[in-house]
Prior knowledge:
single chain; 3 helices
Amino acid sequence: MSDEMKRCPFCDEEIRLNAVICKHCRQWMPGYNYESAIRDLVIAKQVTERKGLEAIEAQSREEQLEIALNWAKGDKSVSLQRVDLAAQNLSGVDLSGADLSEADLRETDLSKANLKEAILTKANLFRANLQGANLRKANLTEAYLRDANLERADFSGANLLKANLRATQLMHAVLYRVDLEGANLKFADLREANLRESYLKETNMELTKTGGAVLSGALLIKTNLTGSDLDSFQYKRARTLEGAILPNGREYEE
């Protein structure tokens, strides 16, 4: 019997040393049941993830960039959570599906990058260049995108819940069916943007530029449009304007 094996105390068959249930008699090992086994698995996963985060944070910025580029080439073994890629050139990179939560992407060039279904929750994208990027179904919950260039970026189906998009450039951007609940779009440039069927509950759109923007089928619930240049032809094509504050500062009335 190898050092990595042991005998089951119930049936005396050989099983792995770290087994919590016998593959022969299906008995749980002493001290284990289904609930405790699941608990230990969860704890082990959390410890492994924490070690992964500590490992990448200990790398130099150049090394972290290399890790990200290798990840894009197919090496998905390293987590990219909290990675520091600030001011790096990642134009056209394929990071689709990557977990970049809490990543530092300030002033990073991600123009035309593929970030489809990427996780960017609480990521710092201050003044990042995402022009023409693919962000379909990406999760940008509470992401910081202030002053970012998002021109012609495709956010179709993305989650931008409580994201900070203050003063962003969103000209010709696709925001089809995007969740923008609680997002801050104050001073944003949304000219010619596609906001069809988007969810704009309690979204701050004060002083936005919206010439040519399309809001057909959008849900404007307590949306603040004060001082924006949105005209009645545009906002009346929305599916609902429940409690919306119009550009003149007054609440919409049927």
